[in-house]
Write a structure and sequence with these properties.
mainly alpha, Rna Polymerase Sigma Factor, Chain: A, Arc Repressor Mutant, subunit A, two-stranded antiparallel ribbon, 66% helix, elongated, RNA_pol_sigma-70_dom, RNA_pol_sigma70_r2, RNA polymerase, sigma-24 subunit, ECF subfamily
Length: 199
């Protein structure tokens, strides 16, 4: 990257050059980076929100944080992994800020866990599971995504959501149980396969 007459010159095909130009505040480089990772980042935001409008808000705020903290990115690490962390953390911050709004949507903490085979969820495709995950109570959905999709441990989730670890474990179990119950209702053939195998 070179500076010529106060204008930053970078190679759009050289990722490190684009990153350096973004850090220097070059709007063209920022547009290139945004366009390249827009779809990936938006898919993360859509997972953790309940409407396209919410996802857009989380996405825009997330990219704002990306560009403001890009100097912290370690070029030796995959950029998508770093971007995912920023987007997930921003989605969680958004969830915490709007927790009261989400809590008002549903109130079924005391739902008993159904006795559907644990492996039912394991046999679903990612797309099918994601459709069902969006129907979960917001806190269950968030915990399930953090643990089962994004790979955070219960302790990390507890810290992120500012709740205790036992609550996280309970909410994950309930999320999984509700998914299994829904699958049993909507996909009886699939649930029946596991019932036969357990005999």
């Amino acid at each position: 990257m070179l500076k010529f007459l106060n204008k930053i010159i970078f190679d759009p095909n050289d990722f490190r050059s684009v990153i350096a130009a973004c850090i220097a505040g070059n709007s063209q480089a920022q547009h290139i980076l945004f366009k390249k990772y827009f779809g990936y980042a938006k898919s993360i935001c859509l997972r953790y929100t309940y409407s396209p409008e919410e996802a857009e808000e989380v996405l825009n705020e997330g990219f704002f944080k990306v560009f403001n903290n890009l100097e912290r990115y370690d070029p030796a690490q995959p950029f998508k992994a770093w971007l995912r962390t920023v987007m997930v953390n921003n989605a969680i911050s958004y969830f915490r800020r709007n927790k009261k709004h989400y809590t008002a949507r549903t109130a079924f903490d005391e739902i008993p866990e159904p006795g559907v085979a644990d492996d039912v969820v394991s046999d679903m495709t990612a797309g099918e599971i994601m459709q069902l995950i969006h129907e979960l109570k917001p806190i269950y959905k968030t915990v399930f995504l953090l643990y089962a999709v994004d790979g955070y441990c219960h302790k990390e989730i507890a810290a992120m959501l500012e709740i205790n670890e036992a609550t996280v474990r309970s909410q994950y179990a309930r999320a999984r149980a509700q998914l299994q119950e829904t699958i049993a209702a909507r996909y009886p053939d699939l649930a029946g396969q596991y019932a036969m195998l357990s005999l």
